[in-house]
């Protein structure tokens, strides 16, 4: 297994970024009454999760019927509402997720139109036959040139190797890159375990900041394990509704507080939005 990017002495001093993913593409009020679906809902959630320890929000927007939406105007409305609620005290990352609705070209076009401060992009959603490699490289260069904090979503060690190959071949210029390891996406019942992190760490070269998200009641154990290895945490209703004791979380802020407790138990300080911008905005 590769060694952590940070020396042991420095790890305890390294802030851990807690990102809240409060809604995702699919969760609705029928799943939990506290799932935020509107711009005003997201603004209230931003305030509560900031107070609980989040330094960052992973944002989805929805259509009036609650279904998944990629739309620059809807994102701008939601970003404005969140900024009114918390200023720049949260780094807000928008998603380009397809959710089985959008094609790669539409996802890329949305990011180009919106030009967000931060965005998450699934590697296997844009590195597809529909997008010629030269076009993919041009999009990655555009992101790098504009210093958009771009988190590449990786689902297994095969995705990790593919991302490392793109970088080794020079298709990913230096920019504000990071990666997200999705634990247990293809496990039985889509329930994650901290053991799911090991193949990622065994394949990754630790060259960029990394975070994890996880499904089910072991979400907290998964993100705390990641923090112990120098990674960052993403929690929230997008992937999990349960507390570590198996009970239903009353809200996203409760999941954020659990994550913050885990980080503090490891001796790692909780990152502010300014810390998150410094960590995820670093040139690499």
Features of this protein?
single chain; 284 residues; alpha/beta; TIM Barrel; eight-stranded parallel beta barrel; two-stranded antiparallel ribbon; 10 strands; 39% helix; globular; disordered N terminus; 3-keto-5-aminohexanoate cleavage activity; aminotransferase; Aldolase_TIM; metal ion binding; Class III aminotransferase
Walkthrough of the structure:
By secondary structure, this protein is α/β, with parallel strands linked by helices. It has a single domain, classed as Aldolase class I (TIM Barrel). The chain has eleven helices and ten strands. The strands form two sheets. An eight-stranded parallel beta barrel has the order 1-2-5-6-7-8-9-10, surrounded by five helices. A two-stranded antiparallel sheet has the order 3-4. Strand 8, helix 8 and strand 9 form a beta-alpha-beta unit. Helix 2 crosses helix 3. The chain is globular and about 45 Å long. 47% of the residues are buried. The N terminus is likely disordered.
